[in-house]
Specification:
The chain is an all-alpha fold and about 280 residues long. It has helices spanning about 1-15, 15-20, 25-35, 40-50, 55-70, 75-80, 85-95, 100-115, 120-125, 130-140, 145-155, 160-170, 185-195, 205-210, 215-225, 230-245, 250-265, 270-284. The radius of gyration is 23 Å and the shape is globular.
Length: about 280
């Protein structure tokens, strides 16, 4: 509060040198001083705006964009559960009348809130919102919504076994197929595979991956050498498989090794640790 007092005096005096020295004040302290709403209140008000029927879609979009900016802060992300806001977010997402653009924003909010955040992952898991994400990703009618739903889902289950178990029960595995030629969709599916593998590898999962010809697809990506992001993610998945003691067949090793030779010229643009780990997978 003392810093805020010095900042206020310098602001009123127009003392730029003093303002530079003091630095920006704490927004929460400013809010308390001038009586503005705190961030928890702003979060609740944003959701109320989206729930109000006679508010325009553009204003609802602004409300959700502001909400997402707020929950980029870890404490605010965790407050989604504390403020009981997961249920209204899930209901808005599942409502057939909700415009697609709003659904895209909500999927983005979910992904941002739960990413590398066990508390929010747990709260989202308890809200049973994963089923709607799977439904939206399987639909594929709107590409932007499908991609954002996959992003949210990957974040929700990464390093979070209860989320992966729920993903299995809801038949999320139907999303894992590589017959698409859309590189953005391929990248999202590989990210989902990576999230699945973050929870470990057992015989059942290994069988599922073989059934979907995962390693063949990874080798195809490497041999094409056309999309650096896809190549990087493919190497990362190969690296994960190797760390988890996946039993590569001789044919799989040959295909992947041939692909690695193709992409080695891109080593300055790739994650060198994943590249080296992928090499080990084919050499053992």
């Amino acid at each position: 509060m003392e810093k805020l007092l010095h900042w206020t005096i310098a602001q009123q005096a127009g003392d730029k040198a003093a303002l530079e020295k003091i630095g920006e004040p704490d927004p929460k302290a400013l809010s308390q001083l001038f009586g503005g709403p705190d961030e928890a209140t702003l979060m609740k008000e944003s959701i109320k705006v989206v729930q109000t029927p006679d508010v325009s879609t553009s204003d609802k979009e602004i409300a959700l964009e502001n909400f997402e900016m707020l929950i980029e802060n870890l404490d605010n992300a965790n407050n989604i559960g504390n403020l009981n806001l997961w249920d209204p977010l899930n209901k808005i997402l599942a409502d057939a009348k909700t415009p697609v653009d709003l659904k895209v924003l909500i999927c983005g909010i979910i992904g941002t809130a739960v990413q590398n955040n066990p508390k929010s992952q747990e709260d989202f898991h308890k809200s049973d919102g994963l089923g709607e994400l799977i439904k939206l990703a399987q639909d594929g009618t709107n590409k932007a919504l499908q991609l954002k739903a996959l992003y949210a889902m990957s974040s929700a289950i990464r390093d979070y076994n209860p989320g992966y178990i729920q993903f299995e029960k809801l038949q999320g595995w139907k999303l894992i197929h590589f017959d698409t030629t859309d590189p953005k969709l391929q990248l999202r599916i590989l990210s989902l595979v990576s999230s699945i593998l973050s929870n470990g590898l057992d015989a059942k999962l290994e069988e599922e991956l073989r059934k979907e010809n995962l390693t063949h697809f990874l080798a195809l990506v490497l041999n094409k050498d056309s999309n650096t992001s896809l190549v990087d993610k493919s190497l990362n998945v190969v690296s994960q498989l190797n760390k988890l003691k996946y039993e590569f067949t001789l044919e799989e090793k040959y295909e992947i090794d041939r692909g690695i030779q193709v992409v080695e010229g891109l080593s300055d643009k790739l994650n060198i640790d994943d590249l080296n780990a992928a090499k080990k997978a084919t050499s053992t």
